[in-house]
């Protein structure tokens, strides 16, 4: 009988689950604080799951204040790779750090699709985030046409390998990877658990080839795309699905709290 690899052996002991809310372009600062307070009432002391909320830039300061002294972490949705300069409309890692931001979503498919972000740009952002002690949540995932064309694993391989170029082994466990099939985002079409687990295991195998099994076993790989309380338990029970990056269901406290509880139950 073969011995299970360290990547599949008791993953919950190696990797704490993460539930991250990507609010996208929703919530004013005041609305964000209201939602945050509702979340804190229920999960403010939750430490068995890493909980991150990612409001728009304009709500970071006030939501950050509401989070002071709490276990829930603050994330941004994007960042410019340069330190400062003539980049109208952009925000640097240092600016985020001064707002007590600890995490940043990078390479989201909406950034790639609507704002022309390339793998090379995402790589610069990942390196800049790490240099500033921000934890990148690197998003990868295929479009429907790519899946139907049998290109899913090739696309995910290129996105992952290019984005991680130059990331040092000692930085790797600060990186969270989010597999978000583009066709499942905001569509209500969730990937089947088998489809998601296949890609998650593939991403982990890429990490094994780039960094070795011991480090690869420590990286959290989240699923994103129409994750809801109803489908989360099955997804979160998969050996390589270490949490969720949640869009729609993070905008309402009840569903987000239920997702955090589902992650806790899956540990
Ligand atoms: P939905 O959960 O709304 O499908 O969005 C997923 C997502 O894009 C999170 O980053």
* Total beta strand runs: 8
Cα end-to-end separation: 26 Å
* Outline: globular
Please trace the helix and strand order, writing H or E for each element: HEHEHEHEHHEHHEHHEHEH
CATH top level is: Alpha Beta
The percent range for strand residues is 5-15%
**Count of separate structural domains:** 1
- Let me know the largest β-sheet: 8 strands, parallel
> Taking all residues together, what is the mean pLDDT?
95
List low-confidence stretches: 1-7
Strand order of the largest sheet: 7-6-5-4-3-2-1-8
**Bound small-molecule species:** 1,3-dihydroxyacetonephosphate
Number of helices: 12
What oligomeric state do the depicted chains represent? single chain
Percent helix, as a range, is 40-55%
List keywords for this structure.
alpha/beta; TIM Barrel; binds 1,3-dihydroxyacetonephosphate; globular; 8-stranded parallel β-sheet; 267 residues; disordered N terminus; 13% strand; 12 helices
């Amino acid at each position: 009988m073969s011995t299970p690899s360290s990547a599949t052996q008791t993953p919950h002991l190696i990797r704490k689950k993460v539930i991250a809310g990507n609010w996208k372009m929703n919530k004013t600062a005041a609305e964000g604080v209201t939602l945050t307070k509702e979340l804190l009432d229920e999960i403010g002391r939750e430490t068995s799951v890493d909980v991150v909320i990612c409001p728009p830039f304009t709500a970071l300061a006030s939501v950050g204040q509401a989070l002071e002294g709490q276990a829930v972490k603050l994330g941004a949705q994007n960042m410019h790779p340069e330190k400062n300069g003539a980049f109208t409309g952009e925000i640097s890692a240092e600016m985020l750090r001064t707002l007590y931001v600890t995490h940043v979503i990078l390479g989201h498919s909406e950034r790639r699709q609507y704002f022309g972000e390339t793998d090379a740009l995402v790589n610069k952002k990942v390196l800049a985030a790490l240099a500033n002690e921000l934890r990148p949540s690197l998003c990868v995932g295929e479009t429907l046409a790519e899946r139907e064309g049998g290109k899913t694993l090739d696309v995910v391989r290129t996105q992952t390998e290019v984005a991680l170029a130059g990331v040092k082994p000692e930085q790797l466990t600060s990186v969270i990877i989010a597999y978000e099939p583009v066709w499942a985002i905001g569509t209500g079409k969730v990937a089947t658990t088998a489809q998601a687990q296949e890609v998650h295991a593939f991403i982990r195998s890429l990490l094994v080839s780039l960094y070795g099994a011991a480090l690869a076993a420590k990286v959290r790989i989240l699923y994103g795309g129409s994750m809801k309380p109803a489908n989360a338990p099955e997804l979160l029970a998969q050996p390589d699905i270490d949490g969720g990056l949640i869009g729609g269901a993070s905008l309402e406290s009840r569903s987000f709290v239920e997702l955090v509880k589902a992650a806790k139950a899956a540990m």
